[in-house]
Amino acid sequence: MSKFIAFDIGASSGRTIVGELEKALLHLDEIHRFQNKGVQIDTNLYWNVLQLYIEILNGLKKYVEKYGKIVDGIGIDTWGVDFVLLDKNDELIGYPYHYRDLRTKGMLKKMFKKVPMEDIFSETGIQFMELNSSTQLYSMIFNNSSQLSITDTLLMVPDYLNFLLSGKKLTEYSIATTSQLFNPIKNNWAFSLIEQLGLKPNWFRSIIPSGTLLGTIKDYIAKEVGLDTNTKIIVPASHDTGSAVAAVPVDMEIYLNGEWAYLSSGTWSLLGVELDRPLINKKVLEYNFTNEGGINNTIRFLKNITGMWLIQECKRLWDNKGLDLTWEDIILEAKKAPAFQYFINPNNSKFLNPRNMINAIQEYCKESNQDSPRTVGEISRTIFESLSFTYKSVMEKLEELLNKKIKILHIISGGSSNTLLNQFTANILDIPIRTGPVEATAIGNILTQAYALGEINNIYELRAIVKNSFEIKTYSPKNSEEWNIFYCKYKRFIK
After folding, report:
1. Catalytic pick from 72, 77, 101, 240?
2. Is the confidence at residue 201, as pLDDT, over 70?
3. pTM above the 0.90 mark?
4. 240 counts as catalytic
């Protein structure tokens, strides 16, 4: 039996998960969970990346306490776009900025004056968002950040954590592609764009494929936590969505690439397909789709949609009021609320990082000449219905760009446990929906490590293990005609 450790670190929490692979079945054991959130200092928002390192060590110690000193591999995945700057001595230059930091507000227009939008997109194939690494870095150039004057190395967040464990300064393919500084045609950094933006090419390290054996853990860390000094650090798809998509339990013998879609549902909803090569043209730019990297150098052709962030922020406000609602309570209240009363565009900038999400939703409705939702059920149903309508809009554009009909949608990750939203999505898309596994990211991380060591032969075998190891639920469409009537109404309120 092989054992692997996955550190799955998202934008709100992180987990240490042990995967035991035996006879083509995977068993998971979560042994450590910790909070991850931005730190507000004056007007800026940062990540406490050193605390993440401490939590990784804590997770390794807990592994040793339960399983002993031998583990076959350790892999780290995190959210995308954020990065760490190091000086010539490999010391951290300040805490890394959070992608929701407001320093990038309005910066896209300024960046386009430096390099036209069309040129950036033709180089990278990445959709435009203010939170992209490219925009974050250009904001530092624009504002003459003193940090850049002493920068020697730029590492994406999971690459930095790998560096702390192994001493190797390299960048993994899938996480590099989230930066909007990577050229998927040349399969390397977009050095021409990097120079045009005023950045230095020598900051950027060599890119390695998902499933690379990076090296072994540093001796002093092994001794501190109690692991064997030959413990391998294996790089999965370091972008959490890349690992999650690797674990989509699709039957690849029935559905060809472009015929099945995935929705990685978490703080963000990422809806797309897996392709063998990037798709970059004027229509893709117009629809603001993106080409991110996946396992086996595939392309995750997708759209980033604001996801569970909306309801997570509302729940936080309700918790602060002492309502003490579980997620099941919220779904039940939404189910009881009247249907199709209020509509929002989840991707509106108003919802990126508001002081009060409930107020932001109510203000959006007022500004679009609607009444405003008030109760827990009304607000929750507004979010869930609007998300499902947004999925429909994205799916229509996706099918147009591919010139194909999507036959099935797999919903994975934490949001796949939202039974009401799953049914709404099946209703509006009018195709079968399969949901699970919830722990897709950790599963993809672990099985990619096993793949790297030759314990899994190919992606077909990897996805078959997922299908055989975890419960997969199916949702069939209901009342699709009624849903499509209200979808037409929904589109009138989108801005």
Report:
1. 240
2. yes
3. yes
4. yes
